[in-house]
Design goal:
This protein has 246 residues and is mainly α. It has ten helices and no strands. It binds retinal (RET).
């Protein structure tokens, strides 16, 4: 009963015109539903795909928990839940790097490649956090955002043209196809985030990068596209690979 009262109290705080709160709410539900889907479908696949599907589910599950808190935080405080946002990312983005490694393992991917991607993703996120939450005045956001952007490009380069690409080509078939789609997610889907960052921080880009959208709405759209979309690509690859073998 107590839990129910708390739930109702929070939900009633979302006003009908609070579109930011609405996207937190819907995002939370979507992440939960996606997690249930990935976890429950996991065992219908061949062993070598199970871990990949499990990781897809973990990514959306970790996000669901953070969205639960972010939705609450937004409802109670009315400010961007920057801390929860970055804790979520620093857990889920490295898991996406693991995902690249897992699907390329069949072609002999080395752990060193995975660690390089993870390292770059952590640099990208920690510097982004500095610009968004620590050095928030003057040139702070622009400078830290630029460093973050360089790490982002290094990741994109590695998977589009570097060793990850070579491994995907060796693997061919469903793996190559999935790798290509995931590359597009990183190039286009992940590019949503710097747009959110520019909308929510101060800098020379204030005039040009303003989409008229709230930063959290942009981030929430990015998360739905990337976390659920990414997982579905891996799921699709597992389906395709299983039917190839059958
Ligand atoms: C599930 C969460 C994902 C895929 C988050 C990805 C986040 C980024 C690609 C963030 C990138 C940023 C920049 C490239 C520059 C400005 C600062 C960031 C952290 C927003």
């Amino acid at each position: 009963m107590k839990i129910l009262t708390i739930l109702l109290a929070d939900v009633s705080k979302i006003a009908t015109d609070d579109y930011v709160g609405f996207t937190f709410f819907v995002g939370c539900m979507a992440m939960m539903a996606a997690s249930a889907f990935f976890f429950l479908s996991m065992n219908s696949f061949d062993k070598k795909w199970r871990t990949s599907i499990l990781v897809s589910g973990l990514i959306t599950f970790i996000a669901a928990v953070h969205y639960w808190y972010m939705r609450d935080y937004w409802a109670a405080v009315g400010e961007s839940p920057t801390f929860f946002r970055y804790v979520d990312w620093v857990l889920t983005v490295p898991l996406m790097c693991v995902e690249f490694y897992l699907i390329l393992k069949v072609a002999g991917a080395k752990k060193a490649m995975m660690w390089k991607l993870i390292f770059l993703s952590v640099v990208m996120l920690v510097t982004g956090y500095f610009g968004e939450a620590v050095y928030t005045t003057g040139n702070g956001p622009a400078v830290w955002g630029l460093i973050s952007g360089l790490a982002y490009f290094a990741i994109a380069y590695m998977i589009w043209f570097g060793e990850a690409k070579q491994l995907a080509e060796q693997a061919g078939g469903a793996v190559l196809k999935a790798h290509k789609t995931l590359c597009w997610f990183v190039l286009v889907g992940w590019a949503i985030y710097p747009l959110g960052y520019m909308a929510g921080t101060e800098g020379w880009y204030d005039g040009i990068a303003n989409l008229g959208l709230n930063m959290d709405v942009i981030y929430n759209i990015g998360d739905a596209v990337n976390k659920i979309g990414f997982g579905l690509v891996v799921y699709g690859a597992a389906v395709a690979a299983s039917s190839d073998e059958a």
